[in-house]
Amino acid sequence: MSKIRAVVFDCYSTLIDIKTNEDKNEIFHYLSLYLQYYGAKVDAAKLKSALTLERDRYVQSKGEQYPEVDLEVVFGNILTKEGSGNPFLAESSCKLLRVLSRERFELFPDSIPVLKEIERSGYPLGVVSDAQKVFCLEEAEILGLNRFFDCIVLSTQFGFRKPDPRLFTIACALVDIPPVDAVYIGNDPETDVKGAKQIGMRAILLDRNLKQNRDPKPDFYATNLWEAWEWIKNSS
User: Fold this and answer.
1) pLDDT by residue (tens digit) across 214-228?
2) Which of left, alpha, beta for 61 (phi over 0: left; psi -120 to 50: alpha)?
């Protein structure tokens, strides 16, 4: 088996400990109040319903096996129908929705220390994440993650989600390492392990909640990032 020469991470629930709830009615109450300042007079219930409807329409239009929603485009469509053509408003609405929906947002304690060790050892580092480009890069910057990565590949940049193997292929190309020489670390067997292994990457399932023996099987189970790093060093 070839040596591991690059490490690619999932982002949310792997490096960032996050919990969100977009179903809270107060989110749409405050969003509707905010939009009034820009002439978009849409009440909270209508806004919530429109968001669901436009998301469904967007997914159906993609023609992908694993389609991704671009929330900024979705909000833009809603606001256009409400008579607001302000190009700033879709972006700011997405970010306000995100802030209002976040219930937990912090790094796992091992994220930065392990990234520093991997960086110090000279491995190219990348991210492949099912995430909204309108706020993911800023969230990574807020938590001090961006500086570690040679590439950050987000599903909304391409219109399809994991486990689509193209996302993993793009990341390997950007770090200039063949898939067989790279490892992916993620917390979901169906999207992370399946997607990575389809192109020949090795896969570590980060299983912080000790739910081992989930399919598809990874090359290694880790309960924290330190265990993942030890396995990588021993496999390189």
Assistant:
1) 678 999 999 999 999
2) alpha
For the chain, the straight-line distance linking the first and the last C-alpha, in angstroms and rounded, comes to 10
178 found inside a domain: yes
Q: What is the pTM of this model?
A: 0.94
186-215 pLDDT tens trace: 999 999 999 999 999 999 999 988 766 667
CB 228 within 8 A of CB 184: no
| The residue type at 154 | L
Whether residue 131 is found in the same domain as residue 56: no
Domain end call among 54, 70, 103? 103
Q: How many domains would you assign to the chain? A: 2
What count of other Cβ atoms lies within 10 Å of the Cβ of residue 194? 18
182-186 and 151-154 as β-strands: parallel, antiparallel, unpaired? unpaired
Structural domain boundaries, residue 44: 20-103
Q: Mention every residue, 6+ apart, whose C-beta is less than 8 A from residue 155.
A: 68, 129, 130, 131, 161, 162, 167
